[in-house]
Amino acid sequence: MAPYASDDSTTGGEVDERNSRRRKAARYVVPVTVVGVAAATIGLVPALADSGDPDLPKITAEQLIQKIAESDTERFSGTVKISTDLGLPNLGGLESGLLSGAAGGGEGGGEGSSSADPTAKLTELASGTHTLRVAADGPDRQKLSLLENAAEYSIVHNGKDVWAYDSKSNEVYHGTASAGPERDKDRQPPATPKDFAEEALKAVGDTTSVTVDGTAQVAGRDAYKLLVEPKQSGSTVGAITVAVDAETGTPLKFTLTPSSGGAAVVDVGFTQVGFARPAASTFDFTPPKGAKVTEEKDAGKDFGKEFGKDFGKDFEKGGARGHAEKAPKAGAGLGDGPAGVNTIGEGWNAIATFDTGGEGVPSGEAAGQFGGFLDSLGDKVTGEFGSGTVFSTRLINALVTDDGKVYVGAVTKDALVKAADAGK
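Structure (tokenized):
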């Protein structure tokens, strides 16, 4: 029988009164439930068996995090879709050139450069939507292919060799994988949901709410959904959702949504995945006839660190505790960066600050047309600190004061101004 059904003897007035009482009760129950979930920390909120499709056993957030940590998946193959929407202005391709140049991609196209250089090519994933084919067979064999229009870019790590091939230009980049205690970590294939999830989970602490938010199917596999949310106000991070394979504990999908709402800033997920050992031939590579081959020592270490650490961590640590604490390393591969980086605040509200030792963003007549261009990309702000310009994305914001101080973090514009005022 349907709930709340009435028998024939019930009058219309009684039904209306009963429905009214239920609506009033619902108004009180819903907010209490929401508050309870928001206040919960690790291990307090289990997934309900009927909270989604598929129907999986109950599990706590603590157990699910442990399941991720204990996941020993080293062999897999599949297709990954990665979408990134930082809300950067359209610079007509200029931003791609700047990113590639900053990443050391061929030293601006000079002698010895290669369009197959991974440190330049993988910066393309910092915007737009891309499809990747990935495969791994332990720490010594991985392959990643970036599928493009009528072209393909691949990175193949097989033993001591790392090869990168750009079919569009028919160029090959060859290097030797890194060695030492960090070797296996550096060789992990970048751009998988697990790469992102591991960094995001470093945010877990007193400033973070972690719950299990039901279940889902990802790439045809049953998964739990882990929800990570800042407890602090002022962060640009709204929530992080990680879909975790119920059988293996492998993260299948990572989604970061901003506190401002709208589309995800980062959405990385398998659309197809299997955990059988890939064929050994998957990791074979021979430079095509006529291809230009550029040699670079330790290219394997570069692509693993440059992308896996810089790209993945920069986005995920945008709200994670430790983002600003590791700020001196955040630009690895982008140059040494400024010295004397300090941290203001903690958790999701951590702000990295440093002094450039010079003037801030030029303005007025001294700036000329270039200054006007910069002004169009930022917002002028004032406070007790003086004045400056805030450059914003949907996740990371930076305040550059007129006297050359920089404040940057995954926080709102107001939070940056308050930090600058406090540091005055």
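The longest helix spans residues 12-39. The chain has a mean pLDDT of 73.
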